Amino acid sequence: MNKFPAPHSLTLDLLRHGEPCGGERYRGRLDDPLSETGWQQMHAAVAPQEPWTHIISSPLQRCLHFAQQLAQQRQLPLTIEPALQELRFGRWEGRTATEILASPQAEALTAFWRDPWRNPPPEGETLKDFEQRVIPTLQNLIEHHPKGAHLLIVAHGGILRLATAWALGMPLNNLSRLVIPYACRIRLVMDHIEGQTLPRLLYLRPNDTPPQPTCPT
Predict the structure, then answer these.
(1) 14-29 burial, b if ≥16 CB within 10 A, otherwise e?
(2) Which residue among 64, 119, 128, 215 is least crowded, i.e. fewest CB within 10 A of its CB?
């Protein structure tokens, strides 16, 4: 089995944003900036020089502000992709898991953790709709960049979970089992075989921050 990208492959690095101001909570589309710790986490995550050819970012500032700085420093093109925003958490946005568990929504939250495919957040986005906007976007990025390109996508915990599940062929009702801490990086390699593009997960690299598994933001 090949362990490294081949010349006919395209490489996708996906980087989750660092800690936002306000700490751990369900943010979804809330547009909080990175905290000082979050900036430090992001700089540490990209410290090893990588041969990136293009940066793509969610438009939310906890991703975009760092992506803009990095693109300027590395002199790389930057594309803002609205479809790579986080899952919408509906009535949970802005609330911590502890707050929700102490409310009448506690049962809904535990059901979401158990099977997010069948139990979306109240007034939030379903995983089916989430998948239908994110995966075609990733496929489009792959199709419109040359073989051998190496893309960096700065996005959210939900995006990285979904991309990992896509690469592994994992059912989305198990998505909550993937722990993606702040400033975590994953690398997907897109192999072009017999006219098809087949994703595979090369690695998942967390940072040194203890993981917070209950609250993708």
Answers:
(1) bbbbbbbeeeebbbbe
(2) 128
Angstrom distance (rounded) from CA 92 to CA 90? 5
Residue of 21, 71, 29, 22 lying closest to 156 (CA atoms):
29
Q: In terms of Cα–Cα distance, which of 154, 147, 151, 173 is closest to 162? A: 173
CB 42 within 8 A of CB 207: no
Q: Is residue 37 part of a domain?
A: yes
pTM: 0.90
Supply the range of the domain harboring residue 49: 10-205
User: What CATH number did the domain enclosing 38 receive?
Assistant: 3.40.50.1240
The answer to whether residue 78 sits within a structural domain is yes
Q: What is the pLDDT of residues 106-131, one digit of tens each?
A: 999 999 999 999 999 999 999 999 99
Burial environment of residue 165 by CB neighbours within 10 A (0 to 12, 13 to 18, 19 or more): buried
Task: Indicate the pairing of strand 78-80 with strand 196-205.
Answer: unpaired
Q: What is the number of domains present in the chain?
A: 1
| 27-42 residue pLDDT tens | 999 999 999 999 999 9
